[in-house]
Every structure is written in C-alpha cells, then in structure tokens.
Amino acid sequence: MIRVIRGMLQRHSVLAFFVLSYAISWIIWLPLVVSPQSCRPLLILGTFGPAISALLLTAINSGKVGLRGLLRRFMIWRVGTIWYIFSLFGGAAVTLAAIGLHVLLGGDSPALNDPAQLYLVVPVFLYVLFFSVLGEEIGWRGYALQRLQAGWSALSASLIIGLAWGFWHLPLFWMKGNFHQEIPLGLFMLQSIALAILFTWVYNNTRGSLLIVHLVHAASNTTVGVLPLLPVDTGGDLRPLWFAVGLLWCVTLAVIIIFGPARLSRWPIAQTES
What we know:
Blueprint: H1 2-11, H2 13-34, H3 40-47, H4 49-71, H5 81-104, H6 121-131, H7 137-148, H8 154-168, H9 185-205, H10 210-226, H11 239-259
Helix pairs in contact: 2-3, 2-4, 2-7, 4-7, 5-10, 5-11, 6-10, 7-8, 7-10, 8-9, 9-10, 9-11
C-alpha cells in the first residue's frame, strides 16, 4: 500500500503539491474566516503550507538526497549584480512609477512615509522574508516550477503556478480586516500571474537560485506594505494599484518577448536534484 501511494505521489508530484498546499494552508486559515478576530500566528502558520508540502513530498519521493538538493539552492548567490538590483528595487520602481502616473493624471498625491523612518524598511523586509515568503517560495518555485518546466514551457509553467498561487490566497479575501478584502479578485489574479512569470524569469536566469526568488518576493511585498499603493493606504482609491499592475504587465510582456516563452532565459533551465 505504501509503495502504491509513493508511486502515485511520484507520478503526480505537482498535483499532489497543489492539493497538499491548499489543504494545509486552508485548514489553518478557514477558522480565521469565520472568526470575528484575527490571529497572526495562525495567519503566518498557514503561509507555510507550500513549504511544508514541498519538503514533505521531497522527503517521500527523494529522501535526504532530494532535501539536500532542494535546500542547496539557497546557496546559489553568485549571480550577476543586475539580479540583486532588480530583485531588491524592481518592485519599488514599478510602484513609484504607478503612483507618479496616478498623480500626473490628476489623482491626489498620496501621503508618503517620513523619510527619516526609511530605516524601518529593513525590519519590515526581514519580517516579510522570514514570516511570509519563506513559507511560499520553497514550494511554488523550488518544487512546483522546477517540475512543471520538465514538461511545459517556462511561460506555460508560470501561468499554471500563477493561477494556483493566486487562488491559494482566496481565504484571505474572506478574513475580516485583511487588506485583501479591498482588492478585486480579478486584479489580484492579474498581479499574481504577472509576478509568477517574472519570478520564473529570475529563477531561470539565476540557475534556480531560491535565495534570489526569496529576495524578489520579499522586496515586492515590502514595497506594497511601505508605499501607499493599496486601497487601505489610498483612501479606497484603486487606480494606483491598477496602474501598478498595468506597468507590471508591460515589464512582463517585455521579458516574454526578449527572452522567449520557452525558457524565459538565454540559458538552459537548471535541473532539479530532488
């Protein structure tokens, strides 16, 4: 029986990952949907569904060798400086451009944070990195993307990941007081799919570096949390966010055209060891 189950998990590894990730995260999150109060520890714990799923399935399918291969991708740090620049500041550039466009077209100037408190970006970034992004990227990019690209183009794999990743957030849209409630689901999905393509581009061009995709994801989330882009920070105005997603898609389409949909890279795709 165990062999049969293991065989099924190996043949349908990506599907098993999606199902397990949703199951772990949603089981943890759903009580928060019906609760009148939020519980940050449970919210954080649910975020680790994808990472737990990836590590568990890798251990079952490939044992210690597979786990070492997966975690070793955190040690891929010798990549071009341009990837660090894009990862850390690309999201901020798009967000600032969107806010500028909003103001240029007659929108109200947003209230920016006090420049003297710029140092707070660092602890916010570290918090997002370790208590949010760390629970996701091992799974979405380190496990699922790596396997999907074995049979699909990089663009197709990204579209699948983007849809699964976007809908995985669904319970957050029902949680009282969560900022997702103020964002149209369609807009959020457009953002998720564009980011999934860009994260694949970064991943494939850095030899499958989990370190770099963690940085780009954390920096992106930090930017949205620090700069006035979300409706909660703009008095309910969605236009800056629409502009940001539109500009994000302009960058995404440029990447697809320049690097090609097959690999989103000029280099061979790094093969999994797990």
